[in-house]
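Late entry, CGF complex.
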Amino acid sequence: RKGGLKAKSEKMFGLMDGFLKNDSVSLQKDILDHVEFTVARSRFNFDDFEAYQALAHSVRDRLIERWHDTHQYFKKKDPKRIYFLSLEFLMGRSLTNSVINLGIQDQYADALTQLGFDFEILAEQEGDAALGNGGLARFAACQMDSLATLDYPAWGYGLRYQYGLFRQIIVDGFQHEQPDFWLNFGNPWEIERVHVSYPVKFYGTVEEEVLNGKKCKIWIPGESVEAVAYDNPIPGYGTRNAINLRLWAAKPSDQYDMESYTTGDYINAIVNRQKAETISNVLYPDDRSYQGKELRLKQQYFFVSASLQDIIRRFKDLHKNFDEFPEKIALQINDTHPSISIAEVMRVLVDEEHLDWSKAWGIACRIFSVTIHAVQPEGLEKIPVDLLGSVLPRHLEIIYEINFRLMEELKKSFDQDYDRLSRMSIIEEGAVKSIRMANLSLACCHTVNGVSRVHLETLKTRVFKDFYELWPQKFQCKTNGVTQRRWIVVSNPSLCSIISKWLGTEAWIRNVDLIAGLREYAKDPDLHTEWKNMKKVNKMRLAEYIETLTSVKVSLDAMFDVQIKRIHEYKRQLLNILGIIHRYDCIKNMDESDKRRVVPRVCIIGGKAAPGYEVAKKIIKLCHAVADKVNSDPDIGDLLKVVFIPDYNVSVAELVIPGSDLSQHLSTAGHEASGTGCMKFLMNGCLLLATADGSAVEIAEEIGEANMFLFGAKVDEVPALREKGTTLKGSLQFARVVRMVRDGYFGFKDYFKSLCDTVEDGGDFYLLGHDFASYLEAQAAADRAFVDQEKWTQMSILSTAGSGKFSSDRTIEEYAEQSWGIEPCKCPF
Ligand SMILES: [N-]=[N+]=N[C@]1([C@H](N)O)O[C@H](CO)[C@@H](O)[C@H](O)[C@H]1O
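Prediction complete; structure with ligand written out below:
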């Protein structure tokens, strides 16, 4: 059989005429072949979208080629693998990133030119894969790019939502949500693996029976759904490695309950089967946490069960003994969303592989690690016991057993300290008895990661204080990072060329610490000229986009001041808008000579509000109401323009960030676990105006506080300030601008009343009033700096030069060395 197989593969290899060719002519041939044979259009008559589809399929061929070679090699070397489980992946577009990482962008650009097409125009045909909400989801995507580029043997696992994050439509300044039919015209970047599918069980009961003299539990499920794999090759940059992001879609299981058919209840059977498919239908659109939604729990267990069945099958292909499991597998769960996987591993090892409990638990504790993205305890997931008991009865039993043994262990250290025991319990007593998924994760995971140094301190001293005092060794900091491939090379090619030119190498794209080499040229006038021109080119592109979308004409000489992120009270977009009202009010009361000294601004805000988040939706409306007033006021002209960019997503970020001069990160200190948008702006030489919160603290250490504009209460000052409550008075300017909104200066007086109430009369939980004065000072400092364009350009260059730490490559290397214990496994050919 071995001989036969060997002969067969030699024959196969013989037939294969080597690797796909990437010269322009070969690419032209492949693209036209896909027009005719994949898109099935005549090669003499096809439109831009069909050209894009054909182009995408020709790129996909090259991804698949590397995907195969990489996985053949992983199989051969059998290294320890990292499996990254995330309920969300915000991938964005794939075309440009793929051809750049494959290293064949120029060849494709030439091939298309020969065929009479423009690469950039075809790239615009692609829709975003928006399978996530915000930072946590994009963090997962950046991680995958770095895992591939650094040649780590890694897999990503998630859900293939039929509908991605809703499209944001703005009507009369109000947000409306539209479903995101992202799969309508197919998805060339995925490969449906009909042969890779697993049954996933739900509901039912748990029976006990004796097997070989040992009592064991049998779960009799009530429903079964089929999980089918869709593979998305993730190419590394400057390497042949291409790893896999395997997303699961729910299909009706092929088990026919003949019962219903015989009774002619056919329709019902079909409806039930369709119900099964809904599990992977839609992404929950809220960046905050979810308490007790049945479908959400089913989504979490669905992808966890399918992923673990797939992981264990792959392990068993090469290994017989589960003692080797922790040597070969590391499991990273992205926040607590996949933490039901801990109970699932215990169920499989104990109930199906018949390992005894402590052996199984020992294995679980050696394979799992978790990244926590939330800061506030109320942001931590809890699942009602009744719900879990109904959907996953055996898992509830297992979690009770885990908790029982945890409590027994804790009693050894904290015998009478019942408050601590109840705080650390995985089971939360109370009105709604619930499972604390974070406590389950902390009880099992060998490593618990915070996403910035400030965040980890908050987890150690507040959120998980009890667990930190018991297991300090588990708590590690892995400050987030973003990939410079997408956030410089793909989205800002002119900056990419400048950096490579002045560093005299492109090696920084794989080894970003080299970017610090720009520091020595920070005052170089030639670099300043090129740098300013690069920013101008990107600002022109952004200005055109703004005019097309909102018909607002903006001046390129103005400072482009940007705040783009999910709309949330703690991110304080309202502080930005109240600052704009103050600026508007000041200009209105200026005489012409004063106006000549005003630094013109274009204030750009963008972001989606969770559909049910009324306060956030009011903030979006207020932004539009202020924009309508300011932009139509002849006294203001180009001194101030306000623009809300609708439907903010990864592709919009790739256009806005390179064209930004100043970006705002205004979270009340202690509320932003990290923030990753700030890192993308930093890489693109955009100056930061920020509170000392999350990763902004580490950014200030890397570039120097003098190269950014910090303001506001510090993390350790906030609790005391909140104590002050009503006595805490905002500045006069603050009271004035809130009054203008409350009095209906921008209209919608009644509608904005509750919004004003959130920041006045002692209700100002996020301290907008307290921080307003220092916020205006920081804004004034930014104005003064912007006037001195050489100073500003120097600060901009030093921002990019100091951004190396915030590459997801550094983040991944830390996870690999300190958490996962994995080594690179580079595909040789
Ligand atoms: N969920 N969650 N958490 C977040 C973001 N909202 O997605 O994760 C992001 C990624 O870790 C953080 O940057 C951000 O501060 C934090 O709020």
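The chain has a mean pLDDT of 94. Will revisit in the morning.
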